[in-house]
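User: I'm writing a tutorial on reading structure tokens. Could you give me a worked example: one chain, its sequence, then its tokens, then a sentence or two explaining what the tokens reveal?
Assistant: Sure. Here is the example chain.
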Amino acid sequence: MITFEHVGLRYGIGPEVLSDVSFSLAPGSFHFLTGPSGAGKSSLLSLLYLGRRPTRGRVSMFSHEIGRISRAQLSPLRQRIGVVFQDFRLMNHLSAFDNVALPLRIQGKPEKEIRNNVAELLDWAGLGDHMNALPPTLSGGQQQRIAIARAVIARPRLLLADEPTGNLDDEIGYRLMNLFEQLNRMGTTIVVATHSHVMMDRFHHARLVLEDGHLQVAEPKNWLKRKLDGVF
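And here are its predicted structure tokens:
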């Protein structure tokens, strides 16, 4: 579904923040994106959610070569992508309910369907009593759960999450990771950027490892063990 071939990214005339990045994400795959601070994770995510185009190389998503399509053609592609930003990017003048409902309203879903789906998801996320609250009146953890609910409500084909459990307690963080896994089993391709080795060790998925703008793909140890057990 997604292919990067020798992709480079620089800002202005500065040095490349991503260099010769090549990888492919199959439909329905689940990857952690990890690496030290400043390695280029946010820059790679910006390419994946079509916030930027690469300086060089080739990016193909949803059967489209991103460098060859117009700005207008990017909009329907972005509607297939759900994003959980580290700074949440909620609409502060909209209630928690209306923030989460926004992707469904953009898609033109019936209001009855929107009410039912949004209420159910907010209740599941522990925000059933805060549906009418404005984001600035809520805690950081509550705002993060709203951002996650907004990203997953439309069941995107690609879900990108930047440190999605950073402000959450262990129980809520575990529940949200299980939600991501449920979406993944339903066919959503997922990339979770994280520094948490505890999370990566608990949920065994392949890793995209960035360091100094260069990327390596590492399979989880238990996956390799199962693969070897099946061969030998």
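What the tokens reveal: The helical segments are 41-48, 71-78, 96-106, 111-124, 140-152, 170-185, 197-202, 221-231. The mean pLDDT is 89.
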